[in-house]
Amino acid sequence: MPDISFLLLTGAAVFFGAAVQSGVGLGLGLVAAPVVAFTAPSLMPGALIVTTTLLPVLTIAAEWRHIHWRGLAWGLPARLPGSLAGAWLVGALAPETLGAVVGAMVLLAVAATVSTVRLPLTPVTLVAAGALSGAGATTTSIGGPPIALLYQHEEAARVRATLGGFFLVGAAMSLGVLAASGELTGEQVRAGLALLPFVAAGFLAGRPLRRRFGTEGLRAALLWVVGISGAGLLARALL
Fold first, then answer.
1. Structure pTM?
2. What one-character DSSP code corresponds to residue 142?
3. Mean pLDDT per segment of 10 residues, for the chain of length 239 residues?
4. Is there a contact between 71 and 126 (Cβ–Cβ < 8 Å)?
5. 110 three-class SS
6. Per-residue pLDDT tens digits for 158-175
7. How far is residue 86's CA from residue 171's CA, in Å, rounded to a whole number?
8. For the packed helices 196-238 and 186-194, what is the interaxial angle rounded to 10 degrees?
């Protein structure tokens, strides 16, 4: 069972990330991954992938009518080869190096999120984003940015529901590949399950926060938090 300090610190990050993700479609992995990589790198990425499975279920249950099924049909199959590549990287990299990868991935995700580039929703872009998402999610638990970049100009409910579909099926793929390759430990699973109440609490807090700060306000807060944490994590790994 994770110790109380880990639960409080990581639980706070999971709560905030879940609240933001319930509004903008992603955020849980971006906020929590640097915290876990700082405090317990041996739990990456399995613990957070376990934790992130609950929020998509709640999102889909509330907004399944807005899912872009064509996007899922093209993007999800491509996650499998990406997940296989990610599992290989997890086995090949030391925990400290993996922490640097998490930090770099977070900063790239911030850059992609603030980008004004508008990519078309085509089979080619969906397959490419699906593969990159699978690799990122399996290696660092951060798989949302490639898909979010494609959907960021769509209607908010469609973004949340479609990303929820990607996250749910994609997390199952990543966990299956990690388990098959021997990179998913019992300690990671237990830590991930212990954080699930913070996910549920964050989801419930998301709607009142959206009413108070708006979707763009939550998005701006997310970018500041993850940018600072990602830079700190990368600096610690390189110094």
1. 0.79
2. -
3. 79 89 80 84 88 91 91 92 87 74 74 71 90 83 78 80 90 91 91 93 83 66 66 67
4. yes
5. helix
6. 888 898 999 899 899 999
7. 12
8. 120
